[in-house]
């Protein structure tokens, strides 16, 4: 659900066949790839105009289920501080490289129904996860 620090937010949905996952949020990357850009550093970060990461904010993760098939359709994460909201794209849905095949969504749905727990990781710049 979350890999984040004060400067970047990365929400990722993984299938068992896709270790890189499908993502949304803002920031991250390195020389060979760029992280998602669903919003900007003016909207998320220290002293930003929407989610000021110097202050507490709320996170809501949605896992919508197709009412006809019972299969997960995508993941959506919403950050909220005061009256400002930032939303990821519909992660795992939308066509092309950002979409999962139905078989992947069936696998993720089964994992969630079997008790798989969505997790988060917090990063400190230059120190890595959990620092």
Relevant terms:
single chain; 131 residues; mainly beta; 5-stranded mixed β-sheet; 3-stranded antiparallel β-sheet; 9% helix; 37% strand
Write the layout of secondary structure elements.
Elements: E1 2-4, E2 9-15, E3 18-26, E4 29-30, E5 33-34, E6 44-45, E7 51-52, E8 58-62, E9 76-81, E10 84-87, H1 102-113, E11 120-124, E12 128-129
Parallel strand pairs: 1-11, 6-7
Antiparallel strand pairs: 1-2, 2-3, 4-5, 8-9, 9-10, 11-12
Give a verbal description of the structure.
- The chain has one helix at residues 102-113, and strands at 2-4, 9-15, 18-26, 29-30, 33-34, 44-45, 51-52, 58-62, 76-81, 84-87, 120-124, 128-129.
- It has 131 residues and is mainly beta.
- β11 (120-124) and β12 (128-129) form a beta hairpin.
- It is globular and about 45 Å long.
Shape verdict? globular
Largest sheet: 5 strands, mixed
Task: Report low-confidence residues grouped into runs of 5 or more.
Answer: none
What is the strand content?
35-45%
Order of helix and strand elements from N to C terminus: EEEEEEEEEEHEE
**Which secondary-structure class do the elements indicate?**
mainly beta
The average pLDDT is 86
Rg from alpha-carbon coordinates: 15 Å
How far apart are the first and last residues' alpha carbons, in Å?
Answer: 19 Å
Please state how the strands of the largest beta sheet are arranged side by side. Answer: 3-2-1-11-12
Please work out how many helical segments DSSP would assign: 1
* Approximate helicity band: under 10%
How many E strands? 12
């Amino acid at each position: 659900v979350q890999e984040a620090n004060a400067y970047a937010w990365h929400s990722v949905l993984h299938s068992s066949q896709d270790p890189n996952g499908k993502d949304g949020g803002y920031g991250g990357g390195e020389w060979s790839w760029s992280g998602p850009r669903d919003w900007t550093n003016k909207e998320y970060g220290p002293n930003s105009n929407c989610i000021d990461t110097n202050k507490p904010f709320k996170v809501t993760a949605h896992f919508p289920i197709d009412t006809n098939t019972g299969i997960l359709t995508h993941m959506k994460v919403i950050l909220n501080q005061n009256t400002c909201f930032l939303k990821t794209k519909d992660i795992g849905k939308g066509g092309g490289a950002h979409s999962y095949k139905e078989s992947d969504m069936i696998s993720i749905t089964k994992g969630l129904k079997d008790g798989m727990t969505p997790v988060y990781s917090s990063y400190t710049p230059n120190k890595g996860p959990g620092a």
